[in-house]
Amino acid sequence: xxxxxxxxxxxxxxxxxxxxxxxxxxxxxxxxxxxxxxxxxxxxxxxxxxxxxxxxxxxxxxxxxxxxxxxxxxxxxxxxxxxxxxxxxxxxxxxxxxxxxxxxxxxxxxxxxxxxxxxxxxxxxxxxxxxxxxxxxxxxxxxxxxxxxxxxxxxxxxxxxxxxxxxxxxxxxxxxxxxxxxxxxxxxxxxxxxxxxxxxxxxxxxxxxxxxxxxxxxxxxxxxxxxxxxxxxxxxxxxxxxxxxxxxxxxxxxxxxxxxxxxxxxxxxxxxxxxxxxxxxxxxxxxxxxxxxxxxxx
Length: 298
What we know:
The chain is built from 12 helices and 11 strands. A hairpin with a 4-residue loop joins strand 9 and strand 10. It is globular, with a radius of gyration of 17 Å. It has a single domain (6-297), classed as LarA, N-terminal domain (Rossmann fold), CATH 3.40.50.11440. The strands form 2 sheets. Strands 1, 2, 3, 4, 7, 8, 9, 10 and 11 form a 9-stranded mixed beta sheet that branches. It has a two-stranded antiparallel ribbon with strand order 5-6. By secondary structure, the protein is of the alpha/beta class. The longest helix has 16 residues, at 282-297.
């Protein structure tokens, strides 16, 4: 991707609600006005954040999207390995969504015609994969993800990896068995859809293990952007800054296979020079300078 720099808004905070509102505001764009919005959270299990999306993050995001003029709100996801309906109940998502008049779509319950088959050019998926139309084809999709490492071959799980939740469950066996290609396969799913907004809750992070449980460390950031590669690159810089496992610390950010394959597919910025970290106060600006150094050196 060439052209103007991709903005990633960064807010230093321990208050998720305030961070979501401030980060989205710093972007200065409103993709929700006048259209229905589908929010894709990280509900692979009901484990506490960053094992899954924090309810405070989702609650504030839904409220903000309604204020931004969304004509309807839907929360849609598929869990795994846990049962999706069990995860939604355990996290109290039906009650949370009811407060905002938001519909819940359990992607496991979709009929076959609600899935779209995708086979990107040069794909590492043997027979392609199916994505859920209610999310992938939404007028405005919003992805909200966590900040964490992935202990089962993905290396890290942020906005690019969050897309795996819109892939049909029957394709997961191939993904999990493809240790050599898994990171590239994760990136390839992102060619099937384009969220208009990404919000990353990095108040707490997993720096080893994950995605359900792991070694936890405080990071104190909320990020927002429209470019998944840029958001994940800044997220990786945060993990490097607070100190993560060897798979993160020992490889340059744009050499990570999820990032590199996404760049090959034209899904985001090609390198750190294409990222502008936008902040709104001195604390954010100081931290952005530290992250800029990490980004530039990889």
